[in-house]
Amino acid sequence: MTTYDDRASLTDLTATVDRVRSSVEGVIEGKPEVVRLSLTVLLAEGHLLIEDVPGVGKTMLAKALARSIDCSVRRIQFTPDLLPSDITGVSIWDQQRQDFEFKPGAIFAQIVIGDEINRASPKTQSALLESMEERQVTIDGQTYELPSPFMVVATQNPVEMEGTYPLPEAQRDRFMARVSIGYPSAEAELQMLDVHGGVNPLDDLQPVAHAHEMVKLIEAVRGVHVADTVRRYAVDLVAATRTHPDLRLGASPRATLHLLRAAKASAALSGREYALPDDVQALAVAVLAHRLLPTAQAQLNRRTSEQVVQEILQRTPVPAGPQQNSFGLGQGGPYGQQPPRRL
User: Fold this and answer.
1) Residue 28 in contact with residue 64, Cβ under 8 Å?
2) pTM score, two decimals?
3) For 276-303, what is the mean pLDDT?
4) Under DSSP, is residue 48 helix (H, G, I), strand (E, B) or coil?
5) What is the mean pLDDT of residues 120-133?
6) Rounded distance between C-alpha atoms, residue 133 and residue 111, angstroms
7) Half-sphere exposure of 32 (CA within 13 A, CB side)
8) What is the bridge-based pairing of β-strands 111-115 and 136-139?
9) How far is 263 from 269, CA to CA, in rounded Å?
């Protein structure tokens, strides 16, 4: 665990993240909230799913984030003929050594870009399950550890488009958050024409942070304090999805863990060493909606998972802040007790 002073650690974190954010926003204009969510997932040790129509910059965002950090990057173009061994690797017989030699696949990188992930078959998509959850790959009974930090940034087209396969539920559940970039504003699109009209902005993009820095920042985020009331709030939100009449599949316990980790990362990005219910609320839709399956009746009524999560947020009571003493100060610190100074 990192032992340097917590305030200095938060200063280092925000300074480093601001450099990465500025670098990515130089490529993706007019989408600061999307860039922030991407960095939140990175610091929370999660994986990001970018879903939108073609041409809005999904792959550009993934590449810009990867190139802004000095770490190993591999890109996988998912196609119907892609094999699981193309992702994980394969053991090949070596005639000279008279033994099998393992040839690592594209998954052996710190940031893996999976382009149009839902154009590959479910069998190929399943090759990512172990690596995304356990950060390791098992081939022929031998387990290989993946580097740290490790993040999968996948893009996908809407499932109703030609040549796509729906992601299996187990695959979607391993993505910490889903984000849609959306079309840019008219002003942002005009700026894009000026900046990107003659050159590729990725060509001049240089790393502004190192992999070892990101590992330290991830350790700092782990030490962000979450009070029991905030934990209970996250559990209540997730539990409400399992009993909602418009959903036939609610969020898993993994979703609760991802929501809590993302809230801690969001708090650190805001310069706080403790998480608030606001952090949980702000991330609930991005973290929960893609895991939920609406009922057939809800689909007929055009009810989306995002709408259901918003309804649950409105109905679930938000925990109150700390009690105020005669001096106007909370008893024992934010939300119940003094957060441990471990950042």
Assistant:
1) yes
2) 0.86
3) 94
4) strand
5) 88
6) 15
7) 3
8) unpaired
9) 10
